[in-house]
């Protein structure tokens, strides 16, 4: 029975319960030991019902009595049908497990945040990347609502989409929002969310991809900031920034240069470019400098290879811009980008595409197999040429899995073939290897010398063959292990990329399919789908174009960028694509010339072109194009890989603008390392201090100290900036010639991506003349204040009828001290409300110039005094600026005036009483007096009295003559 079961496949087993030398129960045990799922039916006419039940418990599917054989055929049909159903269910279950495992791996290992969210917005599953973005563990996130971690202003976007999705209005959305991470920081994210539905279209949950775009947002913000932020960008950008003079000597380098090349500014600044460039690159650089001098404004980017300080070769992409001073090129700004990783990535993509194309070719080859061995050898040859391996081989197991044979082999030049010696090898000689292969494990060993102790046998054998690292993938035919395909590295230790392992795994599946034709079509289709998934999953734009300009392929990224569907691109020529962005005529001309310039010597070229979108937006794309030739050297298609470089171009232009602004700024700009040693000064520093660039670089700012400011001043400065704060203050510095100057400065710390302070930036201006002017004004102010305080008259500075300042004499007038008056409303000085309001009405009704009025005040000791106030505004056009009042105490003069008025009234009456007798006396003397001398004398005295009377009448009573006259005659 065991032999029969291993030899053929059976649909059902029918057994008598009792047979000579054998029993149905024994047969049932043999079947169960094989693990095969074959219905087992017992037929007997002797056993009782209890024995039949026991047999059923041990695995029999039915019991048929020989007295009722009519049940046998329906039972057989039923069990065969049930067995088929079970097989399908197992297959579906296995496929489901594999699908779930693939999804789990993709979900957990994704390099962007991913999460599953229930219909109420609660996290049900999150991946590690999302935990890193938000700073929480999976346990802290799962079960909580997304709103719990969402920035307050952004909480409306998610619920609105959930509502629309549940109502069937939308199925996916891409938007930006902010989260608050565990540290309380704001994290910007680009969220792509889709609703997942069951077979009936009922919503199940949401799946979201969350990409951390905080850095992008910060960069956009940084581009809008002033020169201070510009320097942050320059020193923290990964791009390398140089400035060279017209002789090719370096005069400036950004901090990123040291990070990429290992050279410090001291090792580069002042040196010539020929000291760091190979001859060919140096010749090209000097040619470009000459072109700049000849007036060529725009030059294309180009790449150079530079050897770093540690001997590593680095590829840089250079962009140059002239810097003008007085309309003459003074220097050249170089922005270099380390494109080694990009080129490596492009090379990986290129190799991967080549790998994929090779696999596709192999897949196609195996669809029509005429000579299996020839096809396998050709495929191994192709894979070996494009892979990292030095030997590629296939081993096959014998039927009982005890022996393995090397059936096919490819070796790189210089590697000895081993196929002749590797026949009939015992599988027991490689227990560690076999255990992994039997468990469907891929074996990837980066260093044979580091194999675990349990692999000592394998280690000894592989080292004897000179193998340093290897990759082995099992080959299956259906579910049976057939053998394995291996890739050995003999000269260096190699670590394979996951994508490459996936492709090799695909190759092993194709090989398995070659031995089982029924699975070949399925494997080929899966291969094509994997290829398309890889290409469609790229964020770069990928297109394939025929020599006449017709598109034959465009990936999703390109369609999304152009805002077109695939059918609007594929089948259309470059010049005939409609409804998309316009390509300017000059760019289209360059593009056509670009494609016409390919040949076998130059099969790969790059170009940039513009797109003008319907909303007026202009965007730039950079393309890397490869021409594919047939065996006759004719181009059969172009393969294009592109990416959007608009932001990079804008950033470069902004950096150039800001750099020129700093170089020509009217303020001093100095950059130091975190110890305070100078790494950059702008021309204004040289102009003010007298130190030229070589004298300043590497020196400490302490060289400018005069010792005038106290030590505590500088200790407070360093404490502030070392803690990450911005310090503002003044310095009293010494120039190179010994003269001193004052400067007003702001010092800001510069931090790297992990928050460490790497540099300090000082922006300052010379305020020497300002300080002298302030001192002069202060001295004049103090003099004026002393004069005003000593003036024996009240003086006030008023604003909104409140005293802002007053002199000392106001105390003499009012009895209140300066402290009691300043800040108080003048209402407290007036004798009553009516008098206070009268002045206010007078001030508001007519105020074209100085205002003079009299009023009464009440002093601190409750005396009523008469005051004369003279008021004048500080600004006749803006009374809110206040006014000056001059106050005089006229109480005594008012009393004197009153007495004077009373005296004048009395003297007027007296004059009238005197004038009448004088007139009589004058007439009598002239008529009656005969003595001329006496007459003349009397008349003269009468005239004197008349003159005094006139003076009295005019108010001149305080005269010596008046006093003598009054004393004599009154």
UniProtKB/TrEMBL annotation:
PROSITE patterns: PAC (PS50113), PAS (PS50112), RESPONSE_REGULATORY (PS50110). The keyword GTP-binding does not apply. The modification 4-aspartylphosphate is found at residue 16. GO terms for biological process: regulation of DNA-templated transcription. Signal peptide: none annotated. Residues 173-225, 300-351, 605-657, 727-779 form the PAC domain. Pfam families: GAF (PF01590), HisKA (PF00512), PAS (PF00989), PAS_9 (PF13426), Response_reg (PF00072). It comes from the Archaea. Residues 1-81 form the Response regulatory domain. One of its GO terms (molecular function) is phosphorelay sensor kinase activity. Keywords: Kinase, Phosphoprotein, Transferase. SUPFAM superfamilies: CheY-like, GAF domain-like, PYP-like sensor domain (PAS domain). Residues 99-169, 226-296, 527-572, 654-701, 803-850 form the PAS domain. SMART domains: GAF, HisKA, PAC, PAS. This is Bacterioopsin transcriptional activator. It comes from Candidatus Methanofastidiosum methylothiophilum.
